[in-house]
Amino acid sequence: MQYPLKPIDANGKNLAEGDKVLFKKAPEALLSGLPLEDQDNIKTQEGKPLEIIGFDEYGHVEIMFTSADEGTHKRITTIWVDPKELFKV
Fold this sequence. Notes:
Elements: E1 20-22, H1 28-31, H2 36-43, E2 50-55, E3 61-68, E4 74-81, E5 87-88
């Protein structure tokens, strides 16, 4: 794999900050090594449109989402994903 990754999704569409994307299934490389609670939290976002916040120096797409935690607390999660794992909405 050559870095930085190009900002192109699984269908060859250009990606930019502010675009909406989704992953149909959470990438295994993203979940590997994470606690089960974090894996489950990420999996709840499968198939949902998420906004691109930015890109890191390697070209990974930065996505942030909020999900319900125990009780009334909100949980903010930030993930970095290979652009080829995403689909532009």
